[in-house]
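pinging the channel bc i need a second pair of eyes. not urgent but kinda urgent?? the chain im working w is below, pasted from the shared doc
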Amino acid sequence: MDFDSFYSENFDRIHRAMTLRFRDPSFAEEITQEAFYRALKRWPKVAKLDHPEAWTMIVALNRGRDLARRKSRQVVKTALRVEASEGDLEGSLVEDRIFISDLLAGMSERQRQALLLRYIIQLTISEIAVAMGCAEGTVKSTLHAALENAANLAKGTIHVSD
């Protein structure tokens, strides 16, 4: 069997299975196409398998699970993350920027630095300690104080401490 025939006979079935599994037709199409691309790259070996369609289905399932897992891990602290791009300075984004600006202004330089390294650059506690030249415990207490100040600011009170 050549690859074109294999593709024609199996694409719809695998795509439907991925749509049922992940409940997103466009995502299902993406992973199905990638699975067939991988099958094409390895076609001489895949063609010799007893069930190349099963191999392709498993590749699509694995890719879908990997992407879904990665997507679920990308939870970002949105209160401190405001992306800058042209044309987005409307409504609540302006309010978010003002709030974040006020939040950062109400903190010490050390707290600002720790927050930015942790939540914007997304360094680990140990990486922040190295970057700031202090102990990990100091980083943790600085982040705790910064978040406490942020909570106080949200309540309408600002307390600046080093």
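so Residues 118 and 124 are 7 Å apart (CA to CA). and Residues 3-73 form one domain. — does that match what u expected or am i reading it wrong
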